[in-house]
# Entry
Amino acid sequence: SWTMTPTGVLYSPHPTIPGVDLTDFDLIRLAGPQAWGGAMAPIQQFAEVTLPDGSVIGPSQAQDGFVNTPTFEEDLTTLRLDFDRALDWSIFQEVKFGVNYSDRSKTKDNRGFYLTAPTWPYDGAIPEEYRVGVADVSFTGIPGVVAYDGLGMFFDGYYTASDAQELETGRLGDSYTVNEKLTTFFARLDFDVEFGSGILLGNVGIQYQDVDQSSDGFGTYTGPDLYVLATPIEDGDDYGKWLPSLNMTYDFNNGHLLRMAASKTVSRPRMDDMRSNQQVSFGFNISSVNSTDPRNSSWSGSSGNAALRPLEANQFDLAWDWYFADDGLFSAAFFYKDLVNWHRAGQFIADFSQFYIPGYHQAVDEDGNVFTPATFEGLVSFREDGLTGDVKGLELQTIFPMRIVWDKLEGLGFIATATFINGGLDDGSNVPGLSDRNYSLTAYYERGGFEARVGWTKRSEYTTETRGLSLALSPTVDQGSELLDAQIGYDFGLAGHGGWLGGLSLALQGQNLTNEDTLQTNDDRREVTQYQSFGANYLLTAIYKFW
# Structure
């Protein structure tokens, strides 16, 4: 039986069913579930075997394990040229211009191996040399479970490894090279002029970004011999973007400043979303095979989008700053971002009849009944442009030295910020990484070379991504955090010590002092997907300056 707790499921003994001793190496043995391995059907090495109960298993049930071994290679070359010149032209004092060049490439070889134990089709004991003890999983309510070196068994050749690139379309269907060349020309005019009783200063700028993006990948499907067939695919696009900007600050000459900024900004797409790959997949479960609805069909496909445009936003910021002391500030800022292009998961219905293999694309129940596909249509998923949305918010900040209240509190002060955000995408989803509420407070004391700080931060939940099945990225919700950090230090030079001691400074830092945990869930926060406890972290540093 089990009980749901704030940190996830907690298991307890069943009232009527005897428990299993998961720490007993004589009881816990190596075996595959025999419901996996459908893609291994063409491997004749694992011939059909009739078990004592009369059931027959073969290559399609020969998966005892799987290991992912993808390799990545990335290269980035950049060159930037800047020029500036003083001006005496109307209100403009200086011009800056130049060019920035970037050449980036990413290659992924998505490899993996189906593993079959030498004891197949039967189970086997965990070899003595790979047993490493018992893992403590008491946080789930289970005292422990046997632990063994599974990777060591793989690297030592204990298992028969079958190359997944030959057997499942999702391997070469996710192996690619993506290239992008960006040439950005930019120019900026700085201005500074007396206006009324104050000074107006800022700049106006323009960028032109020339983009050439391309990808080499594969189109993959299962061939008549049940091995993967792969066809090279080349795709890409080129285009240009104009990106204007304006920044202005009005200084009232009394400690008050009014700042305004407006610009168009872009952010490059994910490299893996720009792959040119296409792949065909088939699910062997009976309910999908019997479905006549293409949206629930056994047939499916996926692809990248080598012509994907960047994320794009028009943004506006307005802020008021009040410097009530040389080291004292209060600031209030409003910001708005019009998300004019965001990426979303696109889908369309396709006909997969040309990929049908009689006798293979089917499902079989426990009684031996064979079910062939009720439809040859299915969904193809990909990434596409076109999603829009907005983000708006208010940020409050203060830096407050306590000497303003009482001069004997020289060196003592605090820094506080609060950010309130409201935003989302037009399909109802959240903007990744966006927390509605963010707070921070830092209290500090700095005097005579001595320094002490205590910092507190808190953020509300936000949407993010985590690694899922076969290392694929999956959406998840991080439930936010509340962290407490502290630091104490002493600088002998600032304290007035001379000689060799004057170059020495020491500091002790403590991070996550309250042992805050990381909690990730599905949209329903009761469905905990990941619970991690990292504990506190302490750092002792010593720095010596020779001059």
Observations:
- The chain has a mean pLDDT of 93.
- The CA atoms of residues 207 and 392 lie 25 Å apart.
- The helical segments are 150-155, 169-172, 286-290.
- The chain is about 5% helix and 60% strand.
